[in-house]
Amino acid sequence: MIAYKNTHFSNLDYILIALTIVLLIFSWVYIIISYNSLPSIIAVHFDILGKPNGYNSKENIWFAPFVSTILSAGFILGAKYQKVVSFPKRKLNALEKKSNIKTMIFTALLLATLCLLIIHTIIKSSKIKGLELHWIMPIVIGIILIYLALVSFYKFKSIK
Predict the structure, then answer these.
(1) How many other CB atoms are found less than 10 A from the CB of residue 159?
(2) Which of 21, 47, 116, 159 is buried deepest, with most CB atoms within 10 A?
(3) Average pLDDT over residues 118-142
(4) How many structural domains comprise the chain?
């Protein structure tokens, strides 16, 4: 078996990873607590204005945290063991490694945040009929813009 050298995380990286884990755990707990009170058919898709326009059985609510947890874990492990996921296989300089770490960890945090937001939206709109969540799209766009700004900052910083 090949031993891959791991990358050392900074204190900020550990804080972001801990925040990601807390958000994922909160997502799972929120579903566990709310699951029995959900109707058998829940809203699973929303239009741009936050109106539910797609429905499915409540068992499908487990899909979002499952996928988000797997992807977040993959991004965190990819940040830790960059040699495994870097393509093309080449030696990365220190700035590239730091930039890649931040990008992957911020991506894991983005996934965990969006997962919690999606779960909250699904649960609220399924429990309250006729609920329209007009605020959902601006928040999603805002979160993604913050993510893009942070990733761009670290990418441009690594070019210098």
Answers:
(1) 8
(2) 116
(3) 86
(4) 1
